[in-house]
Amino acid sequence: MDFNLSEEQLMIQQAARDFAQNELLPEVIERDRDQKFPTEQVKKMGEMGLLGMMVDPKYGGAGMDSVSYVLAMEEIAKIDASAAVVMSVNNSLVCAGLEKFASEEQKVKYLTPLASGQVIGAFALSEPEAGSDATSQKTTAEDKGDYYLLNGIKNWITNGGTASYYIVIAQTDPEKKHKGINAFIVERGWEGFEIGLKEDKLGIRGSDTHSLIFNNVKVPKENRIGEDGFGFNFAMAVLNGGRIGIASQALGIASGAYELALKYAKTRKAFKTEIINHQAIAFKLADMATQITAARMLCFKAACEKDAGKDISESGAMAKLYASQVAMDTTIEAVQIHGGYGYVKEYHVERMMRDAKITQIYEGTSEIQKIVISRSISK
Ligand code: CAA
């Protein structure tokens, strides 16, 4: 692992930092308050190449490496964790899965507009009764010859109300259990496909989370991804990479809160001195800085392993498990350091604390990450 960032990596980091400061920061409090999706900002992120960062330019992507992705995700999430999850899902769960496993026709038709940011995508695995226990899919895709008939409900789908294309996981042959599951590309607007309720969330309120309802939706056979029965393995492979995205989002939330807390501690005075001169505060900041650095290293390790084509189930799970805990701990302490100011919206850290919590839940809860890690180390 090389800790020296290249010119290109530093450039993308700076571009994402400038974009976040100039375009995301100005109305981030209002978007959180009003649950407003950052439509214009996401459009610009697409134009900057941030929505298909690692995709081959021949399919509309920016052709960058995964370390660049971690760097850019951190900068976006420092300021706006909602914009960061839109970016993570489109890059990791949608574009990466299509680039690796879709047919050439599917790549031309769907990956190209998604990677170039003309449209965004969503990944629909979770259901009302299948979250962590992802093999218990109740959504069915009945094989009808030249098409599948899709029926069921998906829950908590990021980009659910704004996506144009959805990767939907469904059970075709229950007797075969997870080997009977398939993944499909479904287009918004197809007959029988309805966007359900928007969730009113604790955090990442600028992101758009919906249920999806499928009522006899005809999905052409050519929209199945991979061989018959490949859907569950597809979802697991995609989620391994997705966990690097969410780990980087958590890292960004933590480092954003840390930077604000450090700045505040250097200026706020109590007992005749800046509060950073009180060991009780300085030690909190020391812990934050150490843990954030460790989280960043885990993200880089998983990203380097991904680019080297290695199995990233363990390193991706470790990065997400650790970085999401650091995001939670750091944001709680950042609110504490800010005292009464930390509890009001204007100082940003209360939003970051609310945003941090989801990183311990989606794309596999912390408990699921421990299952993945423990299975990997006991092989
Ligand atoms: N990488 C690759 N393959 C994996 C894998 C991994 N991390 N974990 C399991 N698999 C494969 C297994 O090898 C097995 O395949 P084969 O039969 O071909 O060998 C298959 O998956 C089934 O595995 P298990 O028997 O181990 O299945 P299980 O029922 O015990 O569950 C699990 C495994 C790891 C718990 C899995 O169900 C899981 O990851 N659950 C969490 C689901 C999740 O992360 N959901 C997030 C929703 S998406 C989201 O949040 C997006 C968003 O909007 C932000």
TrEMBL record:
GO molecular function (one): acyl-CoA dehydrogenase activity
E.C. number = 1.3.8.10
What Gene3D superfamilies would the database entry show?
Acyl-CoA dehydrogenase/oxidase, N-terminal domain, Butyryl-CoA Dehydrogenase, subunit A, domain 2, Butyryl-CoA Dehydrogenase, subunit A, domain 3
Q: Does the keyword Oxidoreductase apply?
A: yes
Q: Which residues form the Acyl-CoA dehydrogenase/oxidase N-terminal domain?
A: 6-118
InterPro entries from the UniProt entry:
Acyl-CoA_DH_CS (IPR006089), Acyl-CoA_Oxase/DH_mid-dom (IPR006091), Acyl-CoA_Oxase/DH_mid-dom_sf (IPR046373), AcylCo_DH-like_C (IPR036250), AcylCo_DH/oxidase_C (IPR009075), AcylCoA_DH/ox_N (IPR013786), AcylCoA_DH/ox_N_sf (IPR037069), AcylCoA_DH/oxidase_NM_dom_sf (IPR009100)
PROSITE patterns, per database record? ACYL_COA_DH_1 (PS00072), ACYL_COA_DH_2 (PS00073)
Q: Which residues form the Acyl-CoA oxidase/dehydrogenase middle domain?
A: 122-217
| Names of required cofactors | FAD
Q: Which UniProt keywords apply?
A: FAD, Flavoprotein, Oxidoreductase
Q: Which family does it belong to?
A: Belongs to the acyl-CoA dehydrogenase family.
| Stored PANTHER family | ACYL-COA DEHYDROGENASE, ISOVALERYL-COA DEHYDROGENASE, MITOCHONDRIAL-RELATED
- Give the protein's recorded name: Cyclohex-1-ene-1-carbonyl-CoA dehydrogenase
- Species of the source: Chryseobacterium formosense
